[in-house]
Recover the amino acids of this structure.
């Protein structure tokens, strides 16, 4: 009887342990799914936030800026920025650890400086633009940002209504761009300002996805782009494309060689052991061309084999393989 109770207790403990492990496994799956969702390009809006300087929000058109951003679905927050009338950006990055999703706050390295056209014109006329430039550059020197964009609000392009001389403005813009790497955009109203904020939010939100995608990108010998996924899928196609960079090595020859030596390392090691033997072995590889009654079998041949051996054995980066 005591033995039966003991076995029953152990069975219950095993079931409870199994239930806990199952719940933990489901939690990990759900957490990883949430992180994967956050990495998708189309979900950028959920994880971006625009930080609007309080002086910009309380100024002319500030209410319209906040209202329009809300309508557009862009998250925003009013804060005290180091420089007046600036907009910076925050991205929230999700990560998973043992089934728990955590959110990391990342301050992006891009700042928009919004200034009225009349103010910039006054700076130019009084030769006081240097003070404004120093304020912008202080954001870089204090590691607040590395990319500054100046948005000049209320700029009217018509000559008779313009608040500043065209030549003076172009000289000032050129100086900002060439000496301080500050890009300038001329905008006429608040609607265009909000659109710029939205575009920057979108670009910064999609940037991590594009960077991850570019890491898996390989460009072959053709115009088509070849991709290698995280599991290594597509690697053989990249190797075949690399072989086709060699003169007189077509797709059929490259495929035949890659079937016997499925990676550049394997082929290079084979060649390193005996170059002359490698030439003979490669030259003797059979290459099947065509299908059906038109199919025929040829060999790689000595000329193509010699070029392949030189390509994978040469230590001179400037050597021409002809």
């Amino acid at each position: 009887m005591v033995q039966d109770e003991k076995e029953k207790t152990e069975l219950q403990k095993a079931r409870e342990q199994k239930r806990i492990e199952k719940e933990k496994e489901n939690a990990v799956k759900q957490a990883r799914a949430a992180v994967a969702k956050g990495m998708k390009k189309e979900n950028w809006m959920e994880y971006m936030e625009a930080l609007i300087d309080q002086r910009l929000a309380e100024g002319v058109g500030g209410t319209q800026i906040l209202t329009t951003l809300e309508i557009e679905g862009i998250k925003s927050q009013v804060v005290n920025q180091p420089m007046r009338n600036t907009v910076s950006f925050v991205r929230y990055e999700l990560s998973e650890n043992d089934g728990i999703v955590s959110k990391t706050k990342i301050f992006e390295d891009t700042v928009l400086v919004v200034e009225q056209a009349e103010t910039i014109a006054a700076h130019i006329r009084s030769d006081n633009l240097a003070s404004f430039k120093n304020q912008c550059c202080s954001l870089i020197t204090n590691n607040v940002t590395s990319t500054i964009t100046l948005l000049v609000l209320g700029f009217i392009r018509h000559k008779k209504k313009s608040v500043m001389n065209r030549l003076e403005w172009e000289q000032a813009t050129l100086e900002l761009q060439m000496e301080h790497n500050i890009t300038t955009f001329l905008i006429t109203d608040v609607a265009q300002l909000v659109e710029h904020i939205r575009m920057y939010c979108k670009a910064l939100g999609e940037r991590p996805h594009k960077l991850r995608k570019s890491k898996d990108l390989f460009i072959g010998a053709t115009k088509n782009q070849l991709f290698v996924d995280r599991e290594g899928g597509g690697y053989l196609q990249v190797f075949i494309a690399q072989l086709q960079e060699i003169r007189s090595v077509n797709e059929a020859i490259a495929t035949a060689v890659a079937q016997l030596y499925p990676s550049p390392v394997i082929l290079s090691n084979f060649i390193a052991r005996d170059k002359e033997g490698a030439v003979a072995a490669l030259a003797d590889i059979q290459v099947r061309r065509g299908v059906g009654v038109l199919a025929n079998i040829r060999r790689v041949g000595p000329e193509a084999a010699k070029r392949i051996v030189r390509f994978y054995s040469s230590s001179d980066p400037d050597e021409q393989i002809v």
